[in-house]
Structure formats: C-alpha cells, structure tokens
Amino acid sequence: MLVNMKEMLEKAKAGHYGVSFFNAVNMEMAKAVIEMAEEMKAPVIVGTAEILLPAMELKHVSKYLIPMAKEASVPVAVHYDHGLTFDRCMEALDLGFTSIMYDCSTLSYEDNLSKVAEMVRICHEKNVTVEGELGHVGDNAGSGKLENPSDYYTDPDLALDFVQKTGIDALAVAVGNAHGDYAFPPKLDFDRIRIISEKTGIPLVLHGGSGLSNSDFETAVKLGICKINIFTDIDKAGKRGIENGLKAGAKTMMELMPYETDAMKEVVREKISLFGSSGKA
Q1: 3-class secondary structure, 24
Q2: What is the CATH classification number for the domain harbouring 209?
Q3: Residue 1 and residue 223 in contact, taking contact as beta carbons nearer than 8 Å
Q4: How far apart are alpha carbons 250 and 246 in whole angstroms?
Q5: In a domain, 281, yes or no
Q6: Does some domain include residue 175?
Q7: Domain of residue 138, residue span
C-alpha cells in the first residue's frame, strides 16, 4: 500500500526500531526491496535521489515505483531523496511521490529554514511528508568531501528551532556519517543523536548508512534514528549477483536478472532484520 512517511516513522520512533530506505534506480532493485519487505512483513521506503537521475529519470522511476508500492501488501513510502532544486521536488510531487527531502543544507541557516518551510507548506497540503537536513552530510569521496566534517555536525539547539519553524516530519542529521564507501571506520556522535532526538521529538534520519557496523546501527536506532538510508550496499550486491551469474554460465540478461535480484534481496533482508522492522507492517 502506498503511504507517506509520517505514520510509518512515528511508529518506528515509538517502537524504537528503524525503517529502511533504499534507492531503487531500476526494476530489479525495486523488486528486491518490495518483495523482501513483503516476505518479512516490514514497512519500507523506496525512491531515488537527484544525484541518481542520470541512471534513471524521475518520470521513469515513478512509473514503476508508485504502482509497485500501491500493489504491495505492506506500507511503502515513495521518497524523493536529496532534492537539490525546487523544480525537481515539485516534479516528484506532481508525479505522485509521497515524501520529499528538500536538501538545502549547504545554504545559510536562514535560507535552509525558509526554503524548507515553504516546501512543507506545499507538500502538507497534498498529504506528502517532508524531510529536511540540518548540518551537512558530506561524501567520503568526490566534490562533497568535507575537510573537517565535525564543523558541519547538527547543532541540537538549532535543530529544535529548525523543526519548530519548518514543521518538517523528519530530520536528517550530520553526526559523523557520510555518503558512499567509508575509507576509515566512522565514529558516530551518539550523544548528539540522543540530545537532538530528545530536544526535537521527531524521527531522525541517518544518511550514509552503507558501511556502518551493526553495533553503530543498533545504538543509533535506540537513540532516535528512525530512517536509515542505504544505497551503496544494495548497489554493490547487484553487481556481485551479476558476477555470480556469469560465473554460473548465464549468457543473457534474462538469465542474469534472478542472480542480481537475489543478491540484493539478501542485503534488504539483513538491513530490515538489523533495524528491527521485521513484522512491524
């Protein structure tokens, strides 16, 4: 069933478990995520991000994700992640996405607040949830890499002000996490997660989830993280599946697809189990 994130994440916060968000830039990814969520009776979030649109355009993503979510036997939110431009966020809204992340985290605090507050006003009129980001989650490599990541950590007092003035439904926090592969083991600021969760009272989101240890995830979820974003792990799993298929003698895409999907389903199974959302649909 197609839903937005509000009730899903509020239940997760009350029940002290996390809901997985997987970017699904093709049908095989979407199939792996939704079929495993149904098997485990778990709520799940699927979608794409603005940076991933070169792999599959937004209008095409909507054509397979939204019907699949509607037909699913478990709650599925379709989320547009890291929307960097107002126009693209509006496109996702018009296409039927049920949740929008408007990422203005690289702007000044005042601009971030005002732009996200306007997005909340627009989206809430259509029963669509909004995720904002305060602080900035950089990349482990590439143009988004930060020299001193701690300078961009989420400030708990500003977080409270931001939540109150924007009306967002979920807050992405910068607490030592980063997008992509971790070159070195990350050190999450768990005290910061706890304080932000207690001050704001809303579901928190952890970006850059691929590569964190099981212990990191479990502790973060206990302290208030309710949505965890995963892409690198499932992306790599699909590649491994194709490699395994080739080794097994598959000679066509039709023969390779089950290997790809099955490998990704195992990652989805692991994350749903680890985050504690199995059986929570």
Answers
A1: coil
A2: 3.20.20.70
A3: no
A4: 5
A5: no
A6: yes
A7: 2-275
Task: List Cα–Cα distances, 6 to 3, 24, 151, 220, 256, in angstroms.
Answer: 9, 21, 30, 20, 37
Among 224, 191, 167, smallest CA distance to 9 is for 224
**Phi–psi pair at 275, nearest 5 degrees:** -80, -10
pLDDT at 80 over 70: yes
**Among 81, 103, 216, 233, the one annotated catalytic:** 81
Cβ proximity of 163 and 171 under 8 Å: yes
Map residue 120 onto helix, strand or coil.
helix
Across-strand partners of 230?
Answer: 22
Residue 26 phi/psi, 5° resolution?
Answer: -150, 175
The residue type found at 87 is D
What is the mean predicted confidence (pLDDT) over 241-268?
A: 97
Model confidence pLDDT, tens digit, residues 52-72: 999 999 999 999 999 999 999
How far are the Cα atoms of 35, 156, 202, 272 from residue 103, in angstroms, in the given order?
29, 18, 18, 25
- Between β-strands 19-23 and 99-102, what pairing exists: parallel, antiparallel or unpaired? unpaired
Residue 75 lies in a domain: yes
**Catalytic (active site) residue 189:** no
Does pLDDT of 35 surpass 60? yes
